[in-house]
Each structure stands twice: as structure tokens, then as C-alpha cells.
Design goal:
With 346 residues, the chain is of the alpha/beta class. 29% of the residues lie in helices and 16% in strands. The longest helix has 17 residues. The radius of gyration is 18 Å and the shape is globular. About 7% of the residues have low confidence.
Length: 346
């Protein structure tokens, strides 16, 4: 989701929070799903990265964490993956190589323990677009240290998934590859050897552009070289259905656009013996978009030898009337997500 193109005021009883501005071998393939479901059916949780113009900010004023009651609601509907978006600068406020902030990391651990204690997966997602304090991260060693620090408390929890960074964009492609590799190496150095890791690509990690050259960057031509001693990489891509793929409009290009935008990435995964996940997707609450969403999800199921799952964007208690809010039970898109979950939930 490209927040630079979709700014929305999110009010709380206390104040308003601003939306963030910046928005080897693979895992063994499995047989296509026989029961019509994906291995991972997920929901994004967004709010801990809000208010990124005020760092570190104040909990409850600039940002929020997630309602654990809604976790139970989602799990009852077949959700088994929660993509927990957060802000790097709040987790280690003194820098990439600094220690964890006890309060912010404590909130994260509370969320993770609750979710994984229910048998679901918790994905740690730094929603930073490859940046720290608004500057592109160029210190790959420091980035690896950051991930080692973050992964260490969860090294023994096999239900935690590590997402290297949300939507790198407008960056040197070699740097994006190197940052992903540093994250993988740092996570494994922490002793987290049993967990999945999801590398993300440049150009907002779009599935539809994965094999294309965008501003000199080509994810498909470069990211396949990533290595993992744990052999548990799942390539994360995002896909929206509006005309520019930014996820800022409720108008879908057509009722087949989701599937169409997955075809080239699917072939890349298969040709390169990789597996993938759609870490963000959404469409407007209307019949054309729902038809397109279902068509794309059916396509993922049909090709579940290379696609492990998908996570809808987004839930979170501060979304108010946001066009894709799936927050129970009043979110604009909550009924749509319920309907999709009744078909694709695990």
C-alpha cells in the first residue's frame, strides 16, 4: 500500500494519528490444494506504524497496537496469519544497532504470544519501505544486526515469520538484494532457524511488475540469488487491483485483473523453484472487485504448489472509514473479508 498516494485522517478519542508516508533454494513445493484452501490465509494489522512523522511518538496518541479480541474473531473465521506492521525506529530508537525499546517490544511480544498461543502465525513486518528516519538504509551490516536483535527473543517460536521490510521502492537494486540477504543472515545468526522468512522486492514488491525492469530495477532477475541456511524463504509480493496498482482506489480495472497480474510472477516462481505469498491485496467493496478478488484467489489455490497464501490489507483499530478496513465489525470491508474467509479460510 502506497501511503504517499492515500492520506487519511484516523481519529481516536484522544487525538488523530497520521498515516505513514512511506508506505538459494526455495521452500519445498507442495501439491496444489485439493480442498480449495491456501496454507496461509491472513490479515494485515496496521496501526503500530502510524504517526511516523512523530518518532518515537506516544502510544495511544501517535500509534496503536491491535485489539486481541479481534484476533479471536479472525481465527474463528479461518485466519491463521497476522501480518503485524510496525515501525523500526520505535523498536530500536537509538539506531539500527541499538537495543530493543522495552515498552514497544513488550507490546509486540504480547501480540505475538497471543497470536501464536492460539496456533496462528505472527509475521513481524517493519513498515519502513527500506528506510530508517526517512533515509534509505545503506548500512547492510547494521540492518543485519537490527534483524538479529529483533529475531533473538522469538528464536524458539516456530510460529513467527520474519518479513525483511515492507515495500522497498526507488532504491538501487543491488542494495535491495543485499539488505534482504543481510536480514536473512541476521535472523539465522539469532538462532531463529525454524521460521519462514519473506524477502520483499523493489518497486513496492508488486507481483505484476516482478519480472519487469522498473527504473532500472528487476526483482525477478536478481532476488532469486538469495540464499538461506534454513531453506525457508517465501518470496512476498503485493497486488492491488486499481489502475496503477497502488491500492488507493475502490475501482478495479476489470473483474479478471487480479488473476492477470499474478501470471508472470507465478511462472517466475515455478521456473526458479521458489514459493511465494501475497502479503497485501485488496479491492473495493463492489461486485466487480469481489469477482476479481475471488478469481485471483482461486488462481492462487490452483497454483498452490508455488503460492503459499495471501493476506488482506487491512485491519486495525484506527482505520475508521478507510476504504479497505476489515476491522471487526464496523470496517468498510469487513463483510467482504468475512465472505472471502468463508471460502478461503483454513
Amino acid at each position: 500500500m502506497r501511503f504517499t498516494q492515500y492520506l487519511v485522517a484516523v481519529a481516536t478519542a484522544a487525538s488523530a494519528a497520521s498515516i505513514p508516508k512511506y508506505h538459494s533454494k526455495g521452500v519445498s513445493k507442495r501439491a496444489p490444494s485439493a480442498n480449495g484452501s491456501l496454507e496461509f490465509w491472513g490479515i494485515n494489522e496496521s496501526g503500530a506504524e502510524f504517526g511516523n512523522q512523530n518518532l518515537p511518538g506516544v502510544y495511544g496518541t501517535d500509534y496503536t497496537w491491535y485489539d486481541l479480541n479481534t484476533v479471536d474473531t479472525f481465527i474463528s473465521q479461518g485466519v491463521n496469519l497476522f501480518r503485524l506492521n510496525l515501525q523500526m525506529e520505535r523498536l530500536t530508537p537509538s539506531g539500527l544497532t541499538g537495543p530493543l525499546d522495552p515498552a514497544y517490544s513488550g507490546n509486540l511480544t504480547q501480540q505475538i504470544n497471543y497470536i501464536t498461543g492460539k496456533g496462528a502465525y505472527a509475521m513481524i513486518t517493519p513498515h519502513n519501505y527500506g528506510r530508517y528516519n526517512n533515509a534509505i538504509i545503506t548500512d547492510t551490516a547494521g540492518f543485519g544486526t537490527w534483524w538479529k536483535t529483533v529475531a533473538t527473543p522469538y528464536a524458539s517460536n516456530s510460529k513467527v515469520i520474519f518479513d525483511t521490510n515492507n515495500e522497498y521502492h526507488d532504491m538501487d537494486q543491488t542494495l535491495v538484494v543485499n539488505l534482504n540477504q543481510a536480514a536473512i543472515d541476521g535472523i539465522r545468526a539469532a538462532g531463529a532457524t525454524s521460521q519462514y522468512i519473506t524477502p520483499e522486492g523493489n518497486a513496492y514488491t508488486g507481483a505484476w511488475t516482478w519480472t519487469q525492469t522498473i527504473n532500472g530495477a528487476n526483482n525477478g532477475a536478481t532476488l532469486g540469488a538469495l540464499t538461506d541456511s534454513g531453506n525457508k524463504l517465501i518470496y512476498q509480493m503485493h497486488q492491488y487491483l486499481d489502475s496503477d496498482g497502488s491500492g488507493t482506489s475502490t475501482t478495479c480495472v476489470s473483474n479478471t485483473i487480479f488473476q492477470e497480474r499474478l501470471v508472470a510472477a507465478t511462472q517466475w516462481l515455478r521456473d526458479n523453484n521458489k514459493v511465494g505469498i501475497i502479503g497485501e491485496f485488496a479491492g473495493g467493496v463492489n461486485s466487480e472487485c469481489e469477482t476479481s478478488l475471488r478469481g485471483g484467489l482461486d488462481y492462487l489455490v490452483t497454483n498452490s504448489d508455488v503460492w503459499r497464501g495471501a493476506a488482506f490489507w487491512s485491519a486495525g483499530p484506527w482505520w475508521s472509514d478507510y476504504i479497505f478496513s476489515a476491522e471487526p465489525s464496523s470496517g468498510v470491508a469487513y463483510s467482504l473479508f468475512q465472505s472471502l474467509s468463508s471460502t478461503y479460510g483454513v
